[in-house]
Design goal:
Layout: E1 2-4, H1 6-19, H2 24-39, H3 44-54, H4 63-70, H5 84-93, E2 103-109, H6 112-121, E3 127-130, E4 143-150, E5 164-166, H7 168-178, H8 187-191
Antiparallel strand pairs: 1-5, 2-4, 3-4
Helix pairs in contact: 1-2, 1-7, 2-3, 2-6, 3-7, 5-6
Length: about 200
């Protein structure tokens, strides 16, 4: 096991997000979300690995689907799950979608990531996310119908965890995903000062 700081978790998660194919903006949301998961005691390494594994199979919500959320049209399940990161980012950008009544969204991949991103943005203090089995500990449900509703009372902030532990094997797997964003070294880049250069006097 290895102990990481909150900043290390956030930085690693950002790189994993980029390595999994998300834009820089969404990767930053993933970083903040992973930090919130870690501080809340959630299984953040497993959640990151599942995100990297499944991201390509998820689809973004269409504008028509988002309009349906605002108007509370009935949701129709679809063959492939919605991307929880893109769903949560839309809700963070326009939280008015959540203000009318509980929002039901069908077939969302890894709903824990909606929890993560709302927590990273602070919206978790006002809204809660539920899905079948969530209350019984099924945090890593691969896909489920979710309900997002206003909390009966504002969530009192819990003392965040300071010791963030991760298994060495999980960190190695996450590092492999994160390394997809690294630029390969070349003689030209080294000559221009990237890395330690060709001469190291330290």
């Amino acid at each position: 096991m290895r102990e990481l700081s909150c900043n290390e978790v956030e930085g690693l998660a950002l790189k994993v997000g980029r390595g999994a194919g998300f834009s820089w903006g969404l990767a930053e949301e993933i970083g903040r979300g992973a930090r919130a998961l870690a501080q809340g005691g959630w299984p953040w390494p497993e959640a990151l690995l599942a995100l990297a594994r499944d991201a390509e199979s998820w689809r973004a919500p269409s504008p028509l689907r988002v309009e349906g959320w605002s108007k509370r049209r009935d949701e129709v399940d679809a063959a492939s799950p919605l991307c929880p990161v893109r769903v949560a980012a839309l809700l963070i950008d326009d939280p008015s979608i959540l203000n009318v009544s509980p929002l039901r969204i069908a077939n969302v991949g890894l709903p824990l990531w909606i929890v993560a991103l709302l927590a990273g943005s602070g919206l978790d203090k006002e809204f809660e996310v539920d899905w079948p089995g969530a209350s019984s500990g099924a945090s890593m449900t691969p896909a489920a119908d979710v309900v997002i509703g206003r909390r009966a009372a504002l969530l009192a902030p819990a003392p965040p965890l300071r010791r963030l532990l991760a298994d060495d094997a999980a960190l190695a797997a996450l590092g492999a995903v994160a390394s997809r964003v690294y630029v390969p070294a070349s003689e030209g880049s080294r000559a221009q000062g990237a890395g330690g250069g060709s001469v190291d006097d330290d």
